[in-house]
User: Fold these one by one.
Assistant:
Number 1:
Amino acid sequence: MNLFLSQIAAIVWKDFVTELKTRELFSAMFIFALLVMLIFIFSVNLSIVKASEVGPGILWVAFLFSGTLGLNRSFVLEKENGCLMGLMLVPADRTVIYFGKLISNFVFLTIMELFILPLFMIFFNIDLIEHLLPLLLVIFLGTLGFCALGTLLSSLASNLKTREIMLPILLYPLLVPIVIGVVRMTGQILAGEPLSEMMNWIGLTASFDIIYIGVSIMTIDHILEE
Amino acid sequence: MVDNPKPSDFAIEVRQLRKDFGVLKAVDGVSFDLKRGEFLSVFGPNGAGKTTLIKILTGLTRPSSGTARVAGYEVEEGRSEMRREIGVISHSPALYADLTPMENLVFFGKMYGLEHPQESALAGLEDVGLAARRHDRVRTFSRGMLQRLSIARAVLHDPSILFLDEPFTGLDIHASNVLKEHLQTLHNNKRTILMTTHDVSCGLEMCDKVALQVMGRFAFFKDIKDVDKENFETMYFDAVRNNQFTMGIRSH
């Protein structure tokens, strides 16, 4: 168990050192999310539409689209120079690779989201401070589900020539339950409703997070094998 | 049970191994044994199934039928334990281009569960003569340096069996000679080595056993002392020529 955890930590450490050196992933995701928000700001007349009604959708579109950029990059790095083969040759369960990549993707995306939130607050003139804790819980659940499924599918798509196209085609339809859940919950939070009012959505989103992780554990061995 | 390997004098035991990709038989009924400490060179034209054979023996892909034991472990059943006993060097170096050699080896050391990954990494870099470049990014390395670093990565955990998949590809004469010296040292240290190569003189010079793989099958498998090198070279080049002819027919 100890080796299992230290192997996962080693993969996360490796991804962080790589990102600190290249800064490719974070900058690309952040700029993309920012651009998505800017486009929406200019296309939505906030004097007619309430920001708390359109904001949640725009926020999650920015998170998910920019997150897809990160997911695409995640396994491409492993394919370069045959590194994935090197990883598959170490005496480790293949779920180590999955959990290592999942944690890296989750942390990178969460950091990007934390940078985007203040900008969202300014652009849409919404006070997030008083709703911060419930909002962070929703972001945690949504990001976890997105990364759990996205990491699995990006490992699958990394073997395809058309991986940049295939990942969103595979990912978005399967993400629908989580997207509906987090957008609804974000809207309710911004409207000032307490978390106790949205326990059904929390349960649904958490259940899909668990299902995605469970399916990934069961299938990653076959997906990574050639 | 995968924890207790079957005791055997053989490092690698292969019986009627097959791998099909649709109608293509990449490995077609290959059987052979390799004793501990022996060096086997496998020659063969492109597409003969050499890389697929190595992928099966290292647990990277499953065979369609047949059995293979490496270090006493069934390649399908005891793969995690078996992987502690093997090291693989291929034409892809399996190194992260944006990390330094030190960071790469420390990472793989942690993945292999080494107690002192830093010390092991440094010792590995000194062995392959790259200690002075340990803080440079791997991206800046030449092909020869990458291959030396690849050796350091493959032997970091002190495996008893090494698989080398065309390790001389893309190397100039100097880099080839340096690599050859490293391989000879590894062989002298009683490691079992299975190498696929197109370099006939180099492969014959280092090995104890020779195999020629053609269209998935071992057309030839002998002790080096029973091999007439000139005849073998002729046979190998004929196999390559016939293979090109066959591939030409297939593509039309």
Number 2:
Amino acid sequence: MTRVHDMGGRFGDGPVVPEPQGMAEFKADWHKGALALTVAAGGLGKWNIDIGRHARESLSVKDYTAFSYYEKWIAALADLLVETGVVSAGELASGQAIGRSDQEPVTGERIARSIAQGGPATRDSDIAPAFVVGDTVRTRRPAANRLIEGGHTRLPQYAAGAQGRILLQHGAHVLPDSNAHRLGDAAEPLYTVVFKASELWAAPEHRGDEVTLDLWQSYLEPA
Amino acid sequence: MTGLIATVGLMPHDHSEHPHALLPPDPALRVKALETILTGKGLITPGALDEIIDTYQNRIGPQNGADVVARAWSDADFRLALLKDATPVVADLGYYGRQGEHMVVVENTPEQHNMVVCTLCSCYPWPLLGIPPGWYKSDAYRARAVREPRKVLADFGVTLPRGTAVRVWDSTAEVRYLVLPMRPEGSEGLGREDLARLVTRDSMIGTGLALAPGGGA
């Protein structure tokens, strides 16, 4: 029903270890390369952000658990490059380019522009908002992609079937459940929904505490 | 190959070998191999990689968010505009771009403390805070922040008054959240640049508080 990345609420992970303030530091030189290659290869335009996330989530449970953060990135990048035909299995196995591409290269100038411009997720949509701020809603259950079995979704399992209240409206955003599988933007209204901690957890720390999630309209029904 | 390209990403492929297994296991060698292949094919220039590293190692970091917070503390109109619709307000200051296209700023008060997490991956407001610190991407933070935020805050040495409720924002879409921490006591009369120095990265994620003038949290 869910994948290894969907870990919100899980027990057993131990303490969170703070780090010095300021710019986050790269702990190894190859971390820089992993970040740079992933961002640059995204500039080739062969996949979108949701396909990229789904590639990381689709690593085997064993790999996802064993890999450090940037190891996940680099493994998912290698998978995507081969699956989109940008790099061949032979090239990956040999570690060498076989022939040159005729595609326009991703240059420093191009990537600087794409970092500065970003890629908004808002789209025009024919789907009218079904909820307004203050409405009570319930999330669907189980938390699963309804288009593709085992597919990408952004409703965490800890919030499946939970009752909450619409807190913010964000207009229509690209639906990851569709976009991650090349089924189109399928943009629909996006909301921030607030849940009481007691709605989500057996032993909430404090009765006033809350959790919010950003949820698409099709994840929600009136309650 | 075109048939393959057309179907990539359509279905999860849990039963086939993942191509990354063709790479050597050592991560540094994996990165080197991919860099050699992609630059060798002429798909990515070394300058592109240098640009990305320089951007996130040297240029874009939490000083951007601290500037925004200091302005909000100093200018009531700016604060109101920021809380109402942050994206154009921070974009006017040049803080816009990848992973910051849809910004929401949430304000801490004596009644409510805000804290940001991404339980499903590691979504983070890059144009305002740079790339996330290791702990933000850790399984422990992702797993625990939503269920036991007060125990996570204790890991950071932060204890909230019992009268303060915690609201944890799980960033599940492309909306990115920045916490506007409470202005510390004793900071009256400080200029914007001095105020910005009190604003830590963690205080804008909600795992810390702004520093008190003269040191200490």
Number 3:
Amino acid sequence: MRVTVTVNGTTETHDVETRMLLVHYLREVRGLTGTNIGCDTTSCGACTVLLDGESVKSCTLLAVQADGGEITTIEGMAAPDGTLHPIQQAFHEHHGLQCGFCTPGMVMAVASLLKEHPDPTEAEVREGLEGNLCRCTGYHNIVQAVLAAAHSGELVP
Amino acid sequence: MSAAVLEEHGAAGVVGTRMLRREDPALLSGEARFVHDLVVPGALHMAVVRSPYAHARITSVDVSAALGMPGVVAALTGADLAAEWASAMPCAWPVTADMQSPKHLPVAVDEACYTGDAVAVVLAGSQAEAQDAAAAVAVGYEELPAAVDLEDAARDDALAHVDAPSNRAYTWELVPDPDAVRRAFDEAAVTVKERYRQQRLIPAAMEPRGVCVVPQPFGGEFVVYSSTQIPHILRTMLGLTTGVPEDRIRVIAPSVGGGFGSKLDVYAEELLCLALARRLRRPVRWSEERSEAAQATIHGRGQVQEIELAADADGRVQAVRVHLLADMGAYLQLVTPGVPILGAFLYHGTYDVPAYSFTCTGVFTNKTPTDAYRGAGRPEATYAIERAMDALARKLGMDPAELRRRNYIGADRFPYSSVAGLVFDSGDYEAALDKALELVGYDALRHEQAQRRSDGATKLLGVGLSSYVEMCGLAPSRVLASLHYVAGGWETATVRMLPTGKVQVVTGATPHGQGHVTSWSMIVADKLGVLPDDVEVLHSDTGLSPLGLDTYGSRSLSVGGTAIALAADRLVDKARLLAAHRLEAAPEDLELSDGQFVVRGSPSTSIGIGTLAFEAFTAHDLPEGMEPNLEASATYDPTNFTFPFGTHVAVVEVDTETGRVDLVRYVGVDDCGNQINPLIVDGQVHGGIAQGVAQALYEEASYDERGNLLTTTLADYLVPAASELPSFTLGRTVTPSPSNPLGVKGVGEAGTIASTPAVVNAVVDALSHLGVEDLEMPVTPERVWRSIGASAPVQGGAR
């Protein structure tokens, strides 16, 4: 089946198997391996991307469901000159990552969370990220990073 | 003590600062490559057919249907593959001379011994095709009785391996003076006898495992990409098990998404991908699915512990006696039998105990093999002694902080020769306790706890303490020899300067989230007077770093970091000789400051280390006998373990109507000696605390009575999310280790070791006035609620 998807601003059309998951489309067809696969039950959130501005777990959607949509992956977050997005920068400054495997999905989930809650409390951050698992950080510094990003004044609503 | 850090490293250095990690940009931008991300044209994808039975005779394996499916290139049974193996799967730690170790092949031939045991493999052009075809392999099984429960297995109710004489793997004892122990219990004013269950845990690194083996077109070399903590050990073991000469194997661990011990192993899939790449002369890859990870990657813990304390009337502990049953699972993996032994020396914890007895029996069951999981033996030991200390405090009617204080090894006793035969390097346990109690506001909490009880509140408050000491920095090679471990415990490093003054560091340590690149470059930057960004760290590739013993047991900094510091010192020594030659000064008159060798008393006469690197490269004018280039290596074998310590305090709210436990506050005071980068230390402690809390409250690898694993997904196995945890308050004391020149101790496992008993002690503490004395882990709402109903309130207001 033919799908046309805009990923990080680039639109391409491909023939894909109807059973192909969106995450496999992004990784294998579009070559964007920053989006990781950590489970088979939509539990871990490592594959989180933005579809039309909303965070989705790309292992839970078929590629064909994204037909005509606009997707942002972790590769689309930094500026073209490599300057990190304020959320990425906050993760860096607050040591919000260790092994980094959950990080792309976590950053995308945070982007969506801060769009809905531009000024969240710590409890709102923790609730908002409950769909994304991290085994390294104990979440402490992720939460700090999210609060710092929210208050950085650099996020475009 | 922090003054000592400054004196050692100089106020202007980067060591000791919260330098941001150099690893981050690649990981944050999606640029980092994990095994699963590698693009390898022409690779075959392997799928593994796994036993759905805990224990079964394999009566037939028919791969013919699978062979006819789209894209399938090969489908092979255990018998088809038997000739590929030069030896069985390795266990590197035969803890006793008579240890039993059933033969463990990467693919079982006659008998499947746990759900997940491999019985066949399929290779196809894509992962989906391989998985589809794996489902078409027809295996005949004759189900056998399964040894599932650890204590039943210890009684040989069912045999885990049909041909084995019993389920006993080994019995290991550490009983320095049996009479002293007997006497202490005979004469004790108070004794406690506790029984704890260490449930099995699934390590659940966020990146499942992955392997990709690429045969090189000429020379017969194989490049093995694996999501592993141990590329060096793996290379040796792949050579021994497949017969591919070790020098023809290059192992690369690219970005590795967490390990926690689960990737400190040699796995069937690694051997299979190599053997199949050799057999088919094509790249072969395998990507683990999460449900496979639950069964085919090692589990942690899995013990039944019996601990007894004998104390005098003042609460001074006179003896500790421990009996363990340790669940090996179906086979002995790389260090399976040694895990309980890593805890064997630490069941007296931070306390000055004169008599000691430890016995452990390793038992086979028809479950996933266990092996090292964050802390490996030491969390289990700490849990037992810290829970038992609280039980003793309750029996004595004494505050648990006071009981600990009375029993600590005093700060004036170091180096301290322990009853179990270790020499604890340095410590001040009471200082850590004091700091933790102050940070948490202990007295106010006790007041609030009493208030809530007298108000009849349904949300009770509990405060739990845990003091720990761990043995880290694995390890002095001679000590490992005495424990029958087959390898050493050294680490090696090379530091070299390139012609333009840039620096390369080669390390045998293998990071998978710990920030070694950042820490190693900080150490070298200060030693050489260069910028950390000018130091490249080469690691995790046996082609670049041919020797090493990898990362586990909180060893990387104290052993690997020390090797780097020593190599850097040697490089500076050589540079100093060259500088003296160029400046026509005596070497001893030169001092290295900010990268410049300066003649003492003549500050205008100097030469930069970068210039010297170029001079050493051109070799146009070297002192007589000096070899070109600035490069030096060092291999460091520690003379002792390091002994990090600390006290953690958990504060919980327990809802007596629902049994719900909320961890509302958490304070951790740790002492890991000198810190290279406190930012990274904080992160290690945070993550460790979360994993220990997870054992206390949420996680268990559950099996049914037939040995089926019930928790194969992250929907069933409850790795906590951000919403289940609070922020943590950390404090630190700094007691440098005299065991190594950096004065460092290691911190990777501390949080996990400390937090589990602190949390369970807190829950029991909340409910102790209702008569609750113990709760099995994980402390679920149901267990809490039932315990309240089942217990009789304590009379007289004892805690």
